[in-house]
Amino acid sequence: MTAPLVVGVSGASGAIYAVEALRALDAAGVPVHLVVSGAALRTLEIETDLRPEDLFALAAAVHEVGDLAAPVSSGSFRTLGMLIVPCSIKTLSGIAHSFNDNLLVRAADVCLKERRRLVLMVRETPLHQGHLEMMARVAGLGATILPPIPAFYHRPASVGDIVRQSVGKALDQFDIEHALFERWHGA
């Protein structure tokens, strides 16, 4: 059986990235342990017509953000790593400073200490020096910073195409096979 991927969803704008990531992981047969912040649930409500149950249905397990005794809070629970999509600056700050006051940050901290892949789709702009310093700090600890910045070589025809390309780039970090966008083959 494939080890699960932990997917964290924070309250940054871009709930659709989380939805598309969960759909792609489900299609790829990758089990997901999902941790969703309260702010993320509010953002999902504001930005989409989906309900929390729609998100939860795409996961093998859903853990309460306040449950610091959940399996993903321990390094002895084996995972592929963690994707935080989208990643708010607040969550980035918690990770950068090992402020493990919730399961979203604690699970990310576990990935860093266990040397597992941690991919943060940081969703903020513009960025000030403090944001950049925190990104550099977590990158130095071993995380990958992967903001959802669109590419256009695949000639996207919709916002959905742009979202799927960013999600595909994130899944590539975990070596998860997908067909979310057309890859570059040269000019």
Q: How would you describe this protein?
A:
With 187 residues, the protein is of the alpha/beta class. It is 40% helix and 15% strand. It contains seven helices and six strands, in the order E-H-E-H-H-E-E-H-H-E-H-E-H. The chain has a six-stranded parallel beta sheet with strand order 3-2-1-4-5-6, with helices on both faces. Helix 6 links the parallel strand 5 and strand 6. Helix 4 crosses helix 6. It is globular, with a radius of gyration of 15 Å. The termini are far apart. The mean pLDDT is 97.
Short description:
The protein has 187 residues and is α/β, with parallel strands linked by helices.
Q: What is the overall number of helices?
A: 7
**End-to-end Cα distance:** 40 Å
Strands side by side in the biggest sheet: 3-2-1-4-5-6
The tally of strands reads 6
Report Rg. 15 Å
The sequence of SSEs as H and E is EHEHHEEHHEHEH
Structural shape: globular
- Stretches where pLDDT is under 50 for at least 5 consecutive residues are none
Largest sheet geometry: 6 strands, parallel
Helix content: 25-40%
Strand content: 5-15%
- Nearest-integer average pLDDT: 97
**Helix/strand structural class:** alpha/beta
